[in-house]
Structure formats: structure tokens, C-alpha cells
Amino acid sequence: MERVFNKSRLILWGSVALVFALLPLLFPGGFALSMLSQLGIAIIFALSYNMLLGQTGLLSFGHAVYFGLGAFMTAHAINFVEEGAFGLPISFMPLVGGLTGLVFSLFLGFVTTRRPGTPFAMISLGIAEMVAASALMFTTFFGGEGGIVTDRTAGGAVWGVSYGPQVQVYYLIAVWCFISMALMFVITRTPLGQIANAVRDNPERTQFIGYNPTRVRWIMMSLAGFFAGIGGALTTINYEIITAESLGLMASGNVVLMAFIGGIGQFWGPIVGAVLVTFLQSALSNFTQAWLLYFGLLFLLIILFSPGGISSLIAMHGPLWRAGMMKRLMPSYVSALCSGGVTLIGIIGVIELLYRGTLLVGVHVAFTWIVAGFLVLVGAFFLRRAIRSVAQAWEDLSPDLAKWS
Amino acid sequence: MELGDTMNRHALSLIDVRKRFGQTKIINGVNLEIVAGERHALIGPNGAGKSTLFNLISGRFPVSSGSIALNGSDITNKEPQVINRLGLSRSFQITNIFPKLSVFENLRCSVLWVLGYRYSFLRRISALRDAKESAERTLEMIGLKDRREKMAGELTYAEQRALEIGITIASGANVILLDEPTAGMSRSETDTAVELISRVTEGKTLLMVEHDMGVVFDLADRISVLVYGEVIASGTPAEIRMSKKVQEAYLGTQIDGDEE
Lengths: 405, 260
Ligand SMILES: Nc1ncnc2c1ncn2[C@@H]1O[C@H](COP(=O)(O)OP(=O)(O)O)[C@@H](O)[C@H]1O
Ligand SMILES: [Mg+2]
Hints:
The structure holds two protein chains of two kinds. Chain A has 17 helices and two strands. Chain A is an all-alpha fold. Chain A has two domains: 7-310, Orthogonal Bundle (ABC transporter involved in vitamin B12 uptake, BtuC), CATH 1.10.3470; 317-404. Chain A has a two-stranded antiparallel sheet. In chain A, α2 (30-56) runs parallel beside α7 and α2 (30-56) crosses α11 (249-262). The longest helix of chain A has 42 residues, at 363-404. Chain B is an alpha/beta fold. Chain B has a domain at 1-87 and 216-260: Rossmann fold. Chain B has helices at residues 50-57, 80-85, 103-112, 129-141, 157-170, 187-200, 213-219, 237-242, 244-251; strands at 10-21, 24-35, 39-43, 65-70, 73-74, 88-90, 175-179, 205-209, 222-227, 230-235. In chain B, the strands form two sheets. Chain B has a six-stranded mixed beta sheet, sandwiched between helices. In chain B, strands 2-1-4-5 form a four-stranded antiparallel beta sheet, with helices on one face. In chain B, α3 runs parallel beside α5 and α5 (157-170) packs parallel to α6 (187-200). The N and C termini of chain B lie far apart (38 Å). The interface between A and B is medium-sized, with 31 and 39 residues. The structure holds adenosine-5'-diphosphate and magnesium ion. The site of adenosine-5'-diphosphate (ADP) has 10 residues of chain B, from α1. Residues 21, 26, 44, 46-52 of chain B line the site of adenosine-5'-diphosphate.
């Protein structure tokens, strides 16, 4: 990997751009477009979070602070433009959010990055709490419970782009998402990015090769705040309203989940997490009231069985793929998938019955209970065996794999 | 004795350095001068305070009292990175590497500051030829060329010890502190390490804690003996070998060097 953008990487990034460009043509519906817009924002936010967690080893419980402050500042900036205070096209408003995130993370990060580990996590939580409390107190800036309302079309059309239709907003988000992704990726391939990894691994040792780990953390946190702020600005543009919820603890917790579910060990892990979590939250909540429960279950399963997240699960298969050994895993995977599917259907049945059917009685309900319970039991029985055979298949592979690499 | 007296001749000078942890006095007034360009061994029984002394010199711990100068400038209680930037590099008795970075990345990290790249996020790291070449050179020197892409945490113990030395010497610092570099190595690994150490410290100042008396008498121009936090003798290998005080206090029958 001699160059940041070698040929295969250029192709990869090119396809990402192409996918971003084509998605609205494939999914032109209103729901799909608003979902895609949300995904773009979530991706920026989750990647910026991983600059802290995955790259620098900083577990923050308050990253939404920079996202939210960027969002509010953007809302005010849009309103100022509407009043004619100054001129800035909507397309460049994300810079306002980014700079806001940058300034606040520079300021707050100076204090919080002095101690890594648990103290950092606790302080970030404290700051998040503090900012959330301020949001309720300073109603001129945060707008109280109603939040701040804006009108993204107020500035009129620039170069024919009015940001009236959602599809235009989608493309704005897509462009900024792509730029942010590329920049954040490039940062991982710089001296700072490399040293951030060293600080994550062993902060003390970096001091003995000339680095100040606190400084490294501070810079990384400031950059992460910048990108989070861009995400915040896009949220404001997308919804034309921003409330204190966006910088609250729920929002901060959400990005932690995205990062962990997607995986913090690969650059693209949080993208997977952002897509999955956002999708589940929006889509699942339309179908069932129990979606939070499913969500919690998913998180639990991943932390238990694949602590490195979904991306590490995928990355694990890279060497096998290259060695052409995937087919040796297939039988055990298929049986695990089938039995897992059966178990899942059973569990869904039980959960939904509990949620919807607790007050119902009758032959019909009793029958459904029996079927669901039966599926869980049978599924679990075969799943256990399938898991064992997956483990066995991996074990059988490992000597050959070692030879191959 | 004033710090100024030792300006040019001494790479390191410690004046009445003391360290206590709570009530426990570990270093009790150490005076030590390391002449620029010499290879100096620090020996003494386990628990004498050798590693602690290294930690004081390199800024890992603050001293309780006393002063330390590096190439004539005061470094007492300075931060480790500040001392490192002044040209002192150290290794650790307990391997202290970046486990999730590759061997190559470990070494490249170690030269970034010295080459002036600092906290830059505007340059591609793979385009930094000098950093790459410098890391490759060290890689070759420590004999880990075929481990280049391996995660450092996955190396064998001996390989990690070699990397530990590599990280320490990569930046080309002119004062080098090695804390038991050959600990736990086999005979042949030790020989390789000694050969490496003597090669890379050519023309530099070396202060080394070492238990293997064969290595010490081989490599050192001068030796200091630390017992219960005090330097009880300092001199050439011959002088140390003859010293009654040393024999009584520490070396005893081990003077001929097949301890541990
Ligand atoms: N951080 C510390 N806190 C308390 N005691 C320490 C600390 N570091 C070292 N010591 C004590 O100082 C003494 C000397 O340790 P050390 O310098 O490692 O000895 P040596 O390297 O000569 O074997 C030991 O008794 C050790 O327990
Ligand atoms: Mg020691």
C-alpha cells in the first residue's frame, strides 16, 4: 500500500460515489429519500466518533454535543442569512456546523483529553449532561422545548438549487458525506493518524518517542468535533428544525452503539453500524413497538459473539476468501443460518405475542404460543450443534490457512 | 558540584538524586556521571533501584530531590517527550511496544518526531520516504525483516525484545538507555543482541542495565554498581572486578559472570 489512492482504492471510492449518485434513482420514494438522507448524516457522525474510539482509544459518551452544537449554530446561521445579516449559500452551511464543532471540541477537549480511559469517559458524560442542561436553560440559543426552526429555502435558489425538494437535500448530504468520508480516511493515513493509533495502543510509550499523547488526543478530538459538526449542520438542513434532543445523552449513546455494532477496528466498520442502526430504528419502529427490544438483543449478541463488531466478522473472512477456502465453511454456515433463522422466528413470535397478545385468550392464541415455543426450542437445539460445527470447520481450516499465508 | 561544571564532557550527570515512594526510600542520593561517548553499565542486585533510576532520568517519574542534566542542560522533572526530544531514548525492562501496529509501523512511529513530521495531518505517511527508509534500516538491523507486516503483539518474546530495542534506537538519539535488553534471551539471541547494541551505539552514549556479567564486561567501558539505591562504586571493568567493596556488597562469587 504505497499510495493513499492506488488503483483498487480509486475504484472502490469511485463506486461509492456512483452508489451515492444512483441511490435516489433506485429508491425515489419519499420515505426512502428521507431514510437515505438520514443514513448519510449517521455515517458522518459514526465515522467521526470512531476517530476517537477506534483510532485514538477514547471512549466518549458525549460526542453528540459537537453534533448538536453544530446543528444549532447552523440553524441560527440560516436564520441570520434569511434576515440578511450575511450571505452564505445553504450548500456551504455544513462548514458553519463543522467550525462550531471544531471550536467547541478544541475548547472542551483541552480539558477532557488530559486523562484517557475511564476518567475521559466519565468527563465526557459530565460535559454531555452539562450541555444538555444548558440547552434547557439558555432558551434564546436553544429555543427551549420547541427548538429552533429554520427555512432552508429562504435564501432563494443558488445556481438553480433551491433545496425545496428532498432529493436536492439528499444530494447535498451525499456530497458532504462523501467528502467527509474521504477526508477522515485520508487522516488515518497521515503521521497524526498513525500516532493516534500508537497513543491508543500504548500512550506512555509515545512519550518516549517524542510525542505528547495528550496533544494527540486533543487534535484528534478537535477533528472529530469538526466532522460531527458537519453532520449536525446537515441534520438542521434536512429537518429544518433542531431541538435539544440532538445533543442529548440518547444521541451520544446512539453513536456508541453504531460504532460497536459496526465495529471499531476497521475504518468502514462504523459505516455498517450507522446504516444498520439507523435503518433498524426507522424501519423497525414502523412495524413493531418492540423494536427497542430487538435492537438491544442485536447489540447483546454482537458484543457477546463478535466483540469486534460486524466488520471484524467480515474482515475475518478476507484471508479465506483470497485463499479460496470459503466453500469449506459453507455447509456449517448454511446450517447455522437455517437453525438461527428458525430460532429467530420463534423468538419474534414470543416477543410479539407478549407485546400484543397478552390480553387475548383462545385456541388461536394458544396454538400460536405453542408453535413459537416449539420453533425456539427446535431452532436452539440445532443452532447449538451448528455453532459447534462452525467452530470445528474453522479449526480444520486453520492449519491450511497458516500454510497459505 | 555545579551542573555547569560538567557541561561538555558529560552526556548525563546526576547530582544527589533521591526518590521515595511514600515512605519507602528507593534511590538515596545517587551521584553519577556518564561521559559522552562511553558505554556505561549499571549493575546491582534485583530491587536495587536500577529501573527506578532509569525512570527518573527519562522523566517517567519525578525525582524527590536532586538534579539531572543531559548534555549539560537541566532535565530534572521534565516530561518524557521533552527529554526525548533533547536526544535521550530509552528501552524498557518490561516490553513496551505498540501491540496492534505492525512491526514496520512501530519503527516508523519512532522516527516521525525526529524527522519533523510532528502532528501533521496534511501529508500522506506513505509518501514520507525518509521515515520509510529509516524504519526499513532499523528493521533490517534488528533482524525482523520477515516480520515486517506482522502485528507487534503477535511476535515471539525474543522478537518483541528486539523490537523494543529497535523502537529505542530508530530515532538515532545520541544518549541511549537500555534496561536489561537481553533479559530472557537465549545464549545465541543474547550474542546477536550484544552485537546489535555495540553496532548501533557506535559513537553514542550508552547507559545499560544488564545482569549478564559476560555482556557487561564485554561491552562496557565503565561500570557503576547500585546497591540499595546508592552507587557504591564506579570505574572500569577491571577496577570493579578488583573492588573489595563491590565483592562484599554485591558481586561476591558471581564476579566471574554466570549469574542468571
Ligand atoms: N512505582 C513504584 N511504586 C512503588 N515502589 C516502586 C515503584 N517502582 C519501583 N518500586 C520499588 O522500588 C524498588 C526498586 O525497584 P527497581 O528499580 O525496579 O529495581 P531493579 O530494576 O534494580 O531491579 C523495588 O523494591 C520496587 O518494589
Ligand atoms: Mg529493573
